[in-house]
């Protein structure tokens, strides 16, 4: 297996981009990534997108985007794993370069979510749950994570305030990220007084509806060395599945797919949790970040809430979590999220993260998950 | 609009609570499966879910998907049945402040939602206090 590097990153401002189409958002972003990489040629493309079919009535988007980027006839593949589609695209691109079949691969993620109204968006996101045995009963994604939150609070004593502190910390970080959808700070009080969506989760516990894209360019390490830029290697890649129905799991509070994916990534990279300088995790809801930091091995089971309260996950804490602002403040254009996480880690490892720069960051991690944890991808990056 | 086949092929599970019991390890799968998720065996006997259970965790949905717009707010729980199977379903006929982890509930046959003009009216199970 060949070693693989991230040689270019591109991201544009995320938000409710009424004036832009999916193809326009993607192409603008991809051009930035190609420019950053300083390469003209790509051998293939992988695009993570959860549901262009339901959001904009358009399938077959891999070819559409290759066409509008001016790259036909190269192979282009859309991959889908709900909210982990972007992380999956990265892994498929990584595998293709590592195999030697391609040398330079574009990995993108894109979602255009505001062409439908809120209830239609809620329905579309709900298709990532078990349609016949979860969604059929009226459960939503905030609802599924609320079920996890309630159980975690009851079993481990995680508090409502600790959940709020996740959102506050991510908005603190996001306030320093000009590309974030909501680049401003919020308070614990604001979270606790925001409108209930699915008890105990309130609207400020939830990541927003977002339009956006994120693109990275991968190449073999030998090609990357010729580019005379900071070398960021993909040191580990892990992917795992779990039941998509939350009720089918042995333990509702434990994210087994994230745990399994992390174990694989740690092993491939030869790293342990203590070797990771910062991590971008899938905080689709505040409770998710708490459960994920436990499953990744940064904190003991049940201690994720306490860790946030103690500031262990803040920018200057033991393990900075979501320096970008996370899904909460940066936004969550579903398929793009897993790729945007990579961009944050690459910027941090290059030392280009500006005000939110984590000092001496050399090893970073991303964790991206689909649905209520039915799929998870974990990647480890190292500056060499 | 979906064809009625999507609704009727789930009738045995939704109307009669049919589950599959693994002939090798005895694990009960709901809905029934072709492969036992515990031991991998492929032979099952038809069984019926226990009708009583307790709430493991719950939420109140206040922002519903469009099919449930006329029902919100409503409670949804994961219920652990007395046979150990865990099932997701609404908890109805109960004030929200009476719903607690550990609340004893039982199945009832209820209307779920309808697809509107000339569409299917879906029925299935919900939970009520036992």
SS elements, strand count of chain A: 11
Please estimate the helix content of chain B: under 10%
User: CATH topology of the largest domain in chain A, anyone?
Assistant: Peroxisomal Thiolase, Chain A, domain 1
The major beta sheet of chain B can be summarized as: 5 strands, antiparallel
Elements of chain B, N to C (H/E): HHEEEEEEEE
Strand percent estimate of chain B = 35-45%
| Computed structural class of chain B | mainly beta
Topology:
The complex is a heterodimer of chains A (384) and B (130).
Chain A: E1 4-11, H1 22-37, E2 44-48, H2 52-55, H3 61-68, E3 76-79, H4 85-99, E4 104-111, H5 118-126, H6 141-156, H7 160-174, H8 188-192, E5 196-198, E6 201-202, E7 212-220, H9 221-225, E8 232-241, H10 256-269, E9 278-280, H11 286-295, H12 304-309, H13 326-330, H14 334-350, E10 363-370, E11 375-383
Parallel strand pairs in A: 2-3, 2-4, 9-10
Antiparallel strand pairs in A: 1-7, 4-7, 5-6, 8-11, 10-11
Helix pairs in contact in A: 4-14, 7-11
Chain B: H1 5-8, H2 11-16, E1 18-22, E2 28-29, E3 44-48, E4 52-61, E5 74-81, E6 86-91, E7 104-114, E8 121-129
Antiparallel strand pairs in B: 1-2, 1-3, 4-5, 4-7, 5-6, 7-8
Give a verbal description of the structure.
The complex is a heterodimer of chains A (384) and B (130). Chain A has helices at 22-37, 52-55, 61-68, 85-99, 118-126, 141-156, 160-174, 188-192, 221-225, 256-269, 286-295, 304-309, 326-330, 334-350; strands spanning 4-11, 44-48, 76-79, 104-111, 196-198, 201-202, 212-220, 232-241, 278-280, 363-370, 375-383. Chain A is α/β, with parallel strands linked by helices. Chain A folds into 2 domains: 4-117 and 210-226, Peroxisomal Thiolase, Chain A, domain 1, CATH 3.40.47; 140-206 and 235-383, Thiolase/Chalcone synthase (Peroxisomal Thiolase, Chain A, domain 1). In chain A, 63% of the residues are buried. By secondary structure, chain B is mainly β. Chain B folds into 2 domains: 1-49; 50-130, OB fold (Dihydrolipoamide Acetyltransferase, E2P). In chain B, 8% of the residues lie in helices and 43% in strands. Chain B has 2 helices and 8 strands; from the N terminus they run H-H-E-E-E-E-E-E-E-E. A 5-stranded antiparallel beta sheet of chain B has the order 6-5-4-7-8. Chain B is flat and about 45 Å long. The termini of chain B are far apart. Chain A binds chain B through residues 118-120, 122-123, 126, 132-140, 142-143, 146-148, 150-151, 154, 195-201, 243, 245-248, 252, and chain B through 10, 31, 37, 56-69, 71, 74, 76-78, 86-90, 101, 112-113, 122, 124, 126.
